[in-house]
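The aim of this short unit is practical: by the end, you should be able to scan a pair of folded records and say something sensible about each. We start with the first protein, listed as its amino acid sequence and then its structure tokens.
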Amino acid sequence: MFLLNPPTVRTLDTFSALPGRYRQTRRTVWGDANQGGRASDSFLEGPVFDAQGNLYVTDIPFGRVFRIDPKGEWDLVAQWEGEPNGMKFMSPTELLITDYMNGLMVLDVTRGSLRPLLARRNTESFKGVNDLCFDSRGNLFFTDQGQTGLHDPSGRVYRLSPEGRLDLLLSNVPSPNGIVLSPDERFLFVAATRGNCVWRMPLLADGSVAKAGQFFTSYGPSGPDGLAMDEAGRLIVANPGLAYVWVLNGRAEPVEVLRGPSGHSLTNVAYGVADRRTLFVTDSTAGEILWAPMSEAGVALGQAQRFPEATTTADKAQ
């Protein structure tokens, strides 16, 4: 990669860490499959803010959702038999969650209750849903990653309309992970983790995608994960294998690199809500939330307008 101007390099600071009362190191089924059998006390993902400035994060292997207040204090919102990953608010009190085990789930953060939204497509189970985003019309875009990779480039990207229509947009992605729209919603970006790159594709007037291309190419043991977008059209990319967060301009050139501790996994990113100029990052290895001030505001997140109720029996969070 040839750059006329090298990127600015900054170090992320620690905002808050998972308290010891929520840590109990042990092996899990998820860790055996995805972390080489490494025992852990958490693996944080899915950061998203509510209107009051509380930060919500998931803990994949232990099926937990935490709320972190603006002072950095933690509270357990819900725990269930699942593997929750990405989250976005679909109403002021309801989080839509991509749960690897259970599909799309809805969590009422005031009650701690859980219900399914979409567990299967035409009676076929998902491979393992991962991350999601909404557009301004309430359409939901989400990735179905499973265990896909270069050995099996069959990961999927879906769009679910507010009326409940599910469209398959892509079915050939090596490990689709983070997903985000451009500020004008004309382009969809998808992190292809095992391809160590980010794909970019136009969204056409008829709702289809075409001319999907490789926008950014990274390197290292684990490729791009969570994505965000700022109002200047810069793409923010969490890169776990490097403990980097890339800030890319419209030419996919790194203009900034935010660094975490060497050897850690920086998995996902979200902008705060006060002025949307602070970026928060999940350090999944350490169970910590990192942060850094940014020069540009993050794009305001869209929310669902409505979805038909699931027909299956609702599960309850514990």
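Turning to the second protein, read its sequence before its tokens, just as you did above.
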Amino acid sequence: MYHRQLATSPTAETPPPSLVASLVERSPSCLQPYLRLTRVDRPIGSWLLYWPCAWSIALAGESGCLPDVRLLCLFGVGAFLMRGGGCIVNDLWDSDVDGKVARTATRPLASGQISKEIAILLVGLHGLAALPILLSLNTYSVWLGVASIVPVLIYPYMKRITNWPQLCLGIVFNWGAMLGYSAVRGYCDWSVVFPLYFGCICWTMIYDTVYGHQDKEDDALLGLKSTSLLFGSKTKPILSAFLFTMLSSLIVSGIQSQQTWPYYAATLISASLLSKQIYSVNLDNRQECGQMFRDSWGLGLLMFTGLIISTLLKHPAEEEKTERVAFDTPSV
């Protein structure tokens, strides 16, 4: 009876009203299950995967110049493909529980619209489509990208063995904060990249913990773990601590890369907006939790805009102060 109640719940997963969701609804019926399997109708996940890439590309850009448009486009396509493949991997891992959770019961694998064999084939096709993008980057970036494969594959299993699957997601989802920088520079200046990466992980902890509150009742009954359940009634103060850490990390990254005032303005405004969201969101209201997650798109755009303007205002002489060459061996 429990399974049947969850599967027929009126809160079962339905696409939020959007232009993309409407286009998916109007597409041929034979394609719709595949588009929903890769969450084409829910583009926010692709954007959240893309923004750390875009931030780091802008952060690594040459002073006084716009970020590399070619790399921004390549990483945009790559984010779309990798997010789609990651969603399929996630649904394959969760095919035994998605049908028992109200929000995910209608997903194509859980509802039997697509077989596991076809889903595995689609994962391979997404990987093959993304491979030329990775191979077009420098050697350092190629190996850095390859290193992300293992955490990507094991992340969906984390909710079964740890209370911190959102942290695991943050590690995976923000890999682009390193990869974008190395794609521009050919190396990672860790004094700049690590605080950016860590700040992005804290951001993921915030939006995905709130997102996870949509499923907390079902997850508890199914024995699945999450920071939403772990933090419980202390979620808001804990997320406020993550917000402070995120803000501090992004400021450190800005200082280390000699950013100008628009970057810090965007960072402070983003932190203020996120603080307001944390304070006002009703964690027992699924619609509000989902809306806060979707609103994260705007924060990503705000930070990206601040980075672009900041870099345009930087004087080329400042670049010389921070330019470093990786693996530089002193001559004897």
